[in-house]
Model the fold of this input.
Amino acid sequence: MCGITGIVGPKSSRYQTALSAMTQALRHRGPDGFGSYAFPNCALGHTRLSIVDVEGGKQPLLTNDGLLGISFNGEIYGYQQLAQQLKNKGYVFQTKSDTEVILALYQQYGERLTEHLPGMFAFAIWDEKQQKLFCARDRFGEKPFYYAQTTRGDLVFASEIKAILASGLIEPLLSQEALCSYIKYGYIHPTLSIYSNIHPLPPAHCFVFQDGKIGQVQRYWDLPATQLDIGLAEATEQFSHLLQQAVERQLVADVEVGAFLSGGLDSSTLVCLAQAMNPKIKTFTFGFQGLVNEFPYARAMAEMYQTDHYELEEAEANMAGTLSKIPEIYDEPFADFSAIPTYEICKVARKFGKVVLTGEGADELLGGYTWWNHSLVLMEEMRRRSAIQKASIYPMAAQEFFRHKLNPPAYDISSIVSHHWRNRQYAVKNAHRYTSVLQAKEVQRRTLTTATLKSLGFAEDLAEKQYAYSWQPDGSLNDALRSDIECFMPGDILVKTDRSSMAHGLELRAPFLDVDFASFCLSLPTDFKVNNRFDKIILRNAFEHKWPENVRRREKQGFGMQNRNWLDLPDVKELKHRILDQKTAKMYALLPFKAVQQITKGNINALFKFLILGLWMDKFGA
Done:
């Protein structure tokens, strides 16, 4: 895991100072080493976190003839098998690193190499013979890649926006569209950055820069279509095999690999699989105050599998201090409250190693966000029951609710979601309100209405803007899951885990996002993932026998602190007073003071969102 930088333009050696500043700005991503190499028209930089081929994997890496060079961030899982296939075709490797495998694949397949490349990655390959730069990013957006063009037309790229700004070659321009996106969702859509002239390379995309021009940014991988000709028993067997294979691949490293353990279904599954391959694996848990504490569930798993277990309590976290760091860590406004505990647990884990397994991706692939999908499932079912009169739906839902509440069944996995009465009411109320699952999902994703956005001064075309999807909706709940995979996961979840971990020089690996496993999950019909009774059906089928009873029975709990108490902390109160309550605060050069005050009054989530925006403006605003 590393940080990458580069500048492409005539006589690139003149950019030595700029490239050095860019690379230094990413030293947190790769504290183990710094490297650079200048071709006549391309300068590549790199900061290294040594995990695979500690001695021989330094970057930028060049081919023997010096005609290709690469700066790469990520991990190529199963690269040893790829390397052996390439050796069989005559390629002679200089190193034992996964980086060289990418160069070898480029020599074999050219720009189509991404079709053969598993893992998480963001890289740039300079082709000296063709005088072009080829850039690509992994399928789900685990690793970041940003780029911009100077006024002279030279290309500047890096793992984080801060490095591009450190070059001094780009004068950033605030994007009103990205600002509106942030205020809508609490994160910026993954096709945008907060600056209109700095661009993220979207997940599963690549491009070529040649002759001073950026070619078409192309998608190289599509979400697989749903297959309907597989039974649950066969699917469960394949599911188990592919997830075990993913964990085995991601445990490969020349340093120790640990695991986050929340005591939820996802992390518990990963730990039981990883422990079978590494009996003394280290596990890490963050415990919250006031909420259903995760410690008992995580401890039950740790005891069952005899892991080397470590805990961090919320009281030990520096709330105001971490809040103040968010603008610096993310370079953009980012209002996912769980960024704070994620940052803190990564700090603890880094004291014990460089690599940790995490459960990211499971909720999006398997329908784990019951706070919305339960409602959508019911809406879908009600549409199917078109013969039933609307009036009869209310007693139907009520009867099922009271049957569970007053006569709870003996334990089975279907009882997990029986508490979602408010979601049932929502579903009944809105069953005929939306024309599609996607429309309902878009409304649920937004945290502020179009009218509220207009009150903040955003034009109607921004307030109501819809972003295109890469796939054709089929009207099923899979539309909602795919929407999360293309928008929420790369815009929020994977940004959070990348920045929170790399701020400490820690690599997080997500076995659920292994391309073989994830592709299989994406292809499964919705009924194998979630219905109106419970979520993650196939995961429960495959692994519930490997979980302690309290883990099997627990309800879904998001990874977030009890945010109704955080504002009472004295240091946070002082931040709020300085950032939100003063008309002279920098944020109010962009937004109307009265409108913000009205929106945040009594709305803790909106308050957090605007506090983060104010902190970002305080640091980066004009």
